[in-house]
Amino acid sequence: MSGEFRLVSIFERLRAIPARRLDLALTALVLTAQLWPLLSSPGPWSWWGYAVVLAAAVPLVWRRRAPVVVLMVTLGVVALYDLSDRVAAQPIWYGALVAMYSTAAYASRWPRILALLVATAGGLAFTGSSDTAVRGVVTFVAAYAVGRAAAVSRSHAAALEERAVQLERERRIEAERAAERERARIARDMHDILAHAVSLMVVQAEAGPVVVRSDPDRAEAAFDAIAASGRDAMVQLRRLLGVLKEGEGPRAPQPTLADLPDLADQVAGPGLTVNHTVTGTPVPLPGDVDIAAYRVTQEALTNIVKHSGATHADIRFDWQDDELVIRITDDGRGSTHARPHGGNGLIGIRERAAACQGSAAAGPRSDGPGFEVVVRLPLGVTV
Fold it and tell me: Which DSSP symbol is given to 347?
């Protein structure tokens, strides 16, 4: 395992070296190998042999930029080696093999195929010995095959890298969308919590002084309601803000339909009665749908307290076969609170319903004075 790791590390270091430097080093290595027969054999040899060996190696510096041209130049120079009588035995022409490899690895399809045919035909035509010609052709074909294998491997690696980059980009976009959805959810929750609590506190605070002398018990109840609303708002805000802190402990459960009786009791007070009825057979809801049902009811009741001047509000939950229908009605001023101040109340109700693949509608009641909000939430929807 350690040997494989070292081998991978070596390849990683080689890939980190600029291609230009690698080509220069390869050219120097090929030149040294091709000069070895001239340097190691007793001479003196003609300058022609040195010149041909040099000319057959130097073009490799441009093997990536113009592989076919480099191959043709190298083969042409190699063919001139025997023009002088005073040359050593022919070296192994590593430069031609590297040029063939580079042509297979970097050239486009038809130029590289044509270059292979020209190289093999030239080897068969200009080599005196048939055995030498066959060996040369086999060697060229082998270099071409290795070059094509390298090209395919490089193309596959590039495709995998591009796919990884694309997946990372998609993951980052999805994370940003999730964060945006979470921010929107938190904003809705904070609006619902604060608007509901502050509205109840304002109503109770206004009612307290009116009855403080005539009915001290009602005044005390109003101030108790103010304190309870403030405490409940603080608890929910701490819970919500805890979600924003990294490393915070597990999230406390958010209010659900089971908390609706407490919500109705909070809203009810001097001058306003709240009834809560259920029809049909309740079924368990997915967590987000359960929270959404509570929040839309809370927001509708908050609008009643703030804008309607109603004396009676009715919450009706109708459990049907495929959906839960929530209807909140009041006997207040009707259309005068169809557009609550700031515009966030009914918009938030519609957004929460849409997030659960449901719908919401609001407007004056058709059966008498007042206003109604109707929310339809599909059963069994996971969001």
Answer: H
- Can you give the pLDDT at residue 89? 65
Q: Give the tens place of pLDDT for each residue, 9-45.
A: 665 676 677 888 888 888 899 888 888 877 777 766 7
Q: 54 lies in a domain?
A: yes
- Give the domain range for residue 312: 271-383
Alpha-carbon separation of residue 210 from 104, 216, 218 (angstroms): 95, 10, 10
Q: What is the DSSP letter of 259?
A: G
> Directed axis angle between helix 67-78 and helix 109-126, to 10°?
10
In sign, the C-alpha dihedral spanning 248, 249, 251, 252 is: negative
Out of 84, 110, 126, a domain closes at 126
In a domain, 238, yes or no: no
DSSP of 136-168: HHHHHHHHHHHHHHHHHHHHHHHHHHHHHHHHH
The CATH number of the domain holding residue 289 is 3.30.565.10
- Establish if 23 belongs to a structural domain: yes
| H-only helix segments in the chain | 2-16, 19-40, 47-57, 67-78, 94-106, 109-126, 130-211, 216-244, 260-267, 287-303, 344-355
Query: Could you say which DSSP state residue 348 is in?
Result: H
**Cα separation values, 108 from 66, 104, 105, 356, Å:** 11, 8, 9, 54
Average pLDDT over every residue of 156-173 = 85
The number of domains in the chain is 2
Output the CA torsion 296→302→305→308 (10° steps). -60
User: What is the DSSP secondary structure assignment for residue 61, as one 8-state letter?
Assistant: G
Residue 169 CB-density burial (10 A; 0-12 exposed, 13-18 middle, 19+ buried):
exposed
> Nearest CA to 355 among 328, 382, 316, 327?
382
Last residue of a domain, one of 100, 126, 152: 126
Residue 153 lies in a domain: no
Burial label for 269, CB within 10 Å (0-12, 13-18, 19+), is buried
Q: Using one digit for the tens of pLDDT, what is the confidence trace for 333-362?
A: 755 444 444 455 777 788 888 888 888 998
